[in-house]
Amino acid sequence: MSGNITPRALYELLYDYKDKNKIICFDDCLSILKNPISAELVKAAADKKSTRTVTYRTTTDSSIPQSFQFEASVIIFTNTPLDNSNAP
User: Which of 28, 63, 74, 83 has the greatest number of beta carbons closer than 10 A?
Assistant: First the structure.
């Protein structure tokens, strides 16, 4: 996946590829890191916990549940430096 993705579309993508042994690769898709909602979704998916739950609560009717267990892997490729001015 490269380009731009909305938080809702990201949630649906994570859901579609949630199964173990799947890998989602984002190539220069900085919208997932710059949008606070998308960043939280990726953070939940990439958590180090043994059970990773991704949640996106919305009033929009959908066939996708508002939370699910995520067992896949996420890789983010970028050649754009991130702002680390708040780094410890």
Answer: 74
Query: How far apart are the C-alpha atoms of 50 and 63, rounded to whole Å?
Result: 26
Q: Quote the tokens at residue 57.
A: 């609560």
SS3 call for 36: helix
pTM of the model: 0.81
pLDDT digits (tens, 9 = 90+) for 33-88: 889 999 999 999 998 888 899 999 877 767 889 999 999 999 988 877 666 555 44
* Chain length of the chain: 88
Q: Quick one: residue 21, left, alpha or beta (phi over 0 = left, psi -120 to 50 = alpha)? A: left
